[in-house]
Amino acid sequence: MSQKKSSIRHRGIYLLPNLFTTGAMFAGFYAMTSAINGRFESAAIAIFVAMILDGLDGRVARMTNTQSEFGVQYDSLSDMVSFGVAPGLVMYLWAFESLGKLGLFAAFVHTAGGALRLARFNTQVEVADKRYFQGLPSPAAAAILAGALWISIELGYDVDSIKYLVLILTISTGLLMVSNFRYYSFKEIDFKGRVPFVVAIIAMLGIGFVMAQAEIMLFLLALGYAISGPVITLLLLRKKRKNRKF
What we know:
Largest sheet: 2 strands, antiparallel
Structural class: mainly alpha
Mean pLDDT: 87
Low-confidence stretches: 1-9
Order of helices and strands: HHHHHEHHEHH
Number of strands: 2
Number of domains: 1
CATH class: Mainly Alpha
CATH topology: Four Helix Bundle (Hemerythrin (Met), subunit A)
Distance between the termini: 65 Å
Shape: globular
Strand content: under 5%
Number of helices: 9
CATH superfamily: CDP-alcohol phosphotransferase transmembrane (TM) domain
Helix content: over 70%
């Protein structure tokens, strides 16, 4: 009887982290439905909400010791919806419909880049250097597109005047996701450790500054992170070459 109970318990899933994952996937789905209905600002905000929830699910799982293989795979499927399919569809409906096949191509490059990025991450998770991600993480790629959309609406830009710029940006995010550029993972930062009080003040000011101009700051942060990949990769290659000489 006890063996039967343990096997039933083993087949179950952890509710708490998977609730955050489900919330992230719903936010991505909501972004798509908002774009279909022409509410593009809501779509952009929903993608950022999905980012927040996606960042919380893994952290909650580690804090509560509820990691599971099911959670890992479910998180990847959620990421594909929220950061692969949703941004591609939103960009297509917002800026690319008038471009025909070219617009369809750009939206698909981002979506396919997200799928390939997630598949590569899942197959290399056990052997990859934990300090770095290989290729731009899909949430950051989605944030660049959502931020560009949100800024354009807030500043009243005519989408027809910037659609080719957005097209290049969308293709670039797709290619960066499947690139070999190294991106810092921030996994070595100890959020549970003690820090000087001044760090808390700086963090508070930083959050306030971001929230004051959320659409601009979030876009710039995501764009800066995207640019950091080539820079970090070049620095690492330079360091490796120097070590070989000695």
